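Working notes for the structural subgroup meeting. M.R. asked for a predicted model of this chain before we commit to crystallization trials. I am recording the input and output together here so anyone reviewing the notebook later can reproduce the run.

Input as submitted:
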Amino acid sequence: MGDRIRALLLDSHTEPLSPMAELGLMFSDRAQSIAEIIRPALDEGKIVLCDRYTDSTEAYQGGGRQLGSELVLQLHEAMCGGLDPDLTILLLPDLRRSLDRARKRNHRATAQSAKDEGRFESENEQFYQRVFDQYREIARRDHLRVVAIESDEDIERIHERITRIVEGRLARRA
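Returned structure, recorded in token form:
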């Protein structure tokens, strides 16, 4: 179910979609993922890795769509039971290069699979600057949980940094 909601959200043909409807769908997808995947895995003592979570919603809908952090965080509490990650690795490469890579990736994916996930990539620079700024604010506000890597280093160096961060956090947890 979560995959179907996500596909709807990312499809460039899902227009017009009000910012509030978008926010509701984001949290519906997340609540479903928590119920189906995340909570059962945590209950079994497993480590869970996610590529997106409420920080992304706060950045995109709270910042990009200008709905604000307060509403996003209230919905997080209500829909996700306040379930927060222990660690968030926030990758913040150069904004313009990052957008170019994302748009190229989505064009390739659409050409290869006919799967359309380009709705967000069609947004303007101002939208993405608000998203970027909100991510930075989240990292500043939650500096114990969020480790921001603002770098355009090559993938091997970024991988090494992430590995050190995760190993250090896991060692403290043990």
